[in-house]
Amino acid sequence: MPRAGLSTDRLVAAAADLADEAGFDQVTLSALARRFGVKDASLYAHVRGLDDLRTRLALRAGGELIDRIAEAVAGRTGKDALAAFAGAYREYALTHPGRYAATQIRLDPTRIAGSPAVRRTAEVTYGLLRAYGLQEPDLTDAVRLLRSTFHGFCALEATGSFTAPRDLEASWNQAIEALHITLTNWPRAR
């Protein structure tokens, strides 16, 4: 019987907090059980195991991320929308490093099929890129370019790997400008 007060949602929320505090790799069933003062086995009434917990955490974090991006992008187009999208992405990645790391794991496609967060991510991202006149297969290529750029910049920034004296905000803004120019002048697939 489930312990009073424990629920799947509370476990995933605690896992998200633990990820931000200690790192995504430190999210384990044992660590969560200690947080709740229960035995590991008690958690199996709420999650099927560590993979299930991490998948739920990834979907929760992905939902949080796209909600922030969608709010930032609302009512904007073109370069303004791109800058808002990028800014919300970066802010989330830097302020929630463990949750952000969860959004980068490979998930079983059968587990995420029909996920509202995944669907909303596609809608917002593809909506931004369609405003640049892109269609498939260019949309997929552009999504990969944006994700690679944003993730790479955020990952390097988070580890303090940018050591050149150039102002980091200036570099970020220049990257957004370069992406805008690239998207505006996208080489169309044949």
Automatic annotation (TrEMBL):
<keyword id="KW-0805">Transcription regulation</keyword>
<dbReference type="InterPro" id="IPR001647">
    <property type="entry name" value="HTH_TetR"/>
</dbReference>
<feature type="domain" description="HTH tetR-type">
    <location>
        <begin position="5"/>
        <end position="65"/>
    </location>
</feature>
<dbReference type="InterPro" id="IPR009057">
    <property type="entry name" value="Homeodomain-like_sf"/>
</dbReference>
<dbReference type="InterPro" id="IPR036271">
    <property type="entry name" value="Tet_transcr_reg_TetR-rel_C_sf"/>
</dbReference>
<dbReference type="Pfam" id="PF00440">
    <property type="entry name" value="TetR_N"/>
</dbReference>
<keyword id="KW-0804">Transcription</keyword>
<dbReference type="InterPro" id="IPR025996">
    <property type="entry name" value="MT1864/Rv1816-like_C"/>
</dbReference>
<feature type="DNA-binding region" description="H-T-H motif">
    <location>
        <begin position="28"/>
        <end position="47"/>
    </location>
</feature>
<protein>
    <submittedName>
        <fullName>TetR-like C-terminal domain-containing protein</fullName>
    </submittedName>
</protein>
<keyword id="KW-0238">DNA-binding</keyword>
<dbReference type="Pfam" id="PF13305">
    <property type="entry name" value="TetR_C_33"/>
</dbReference>
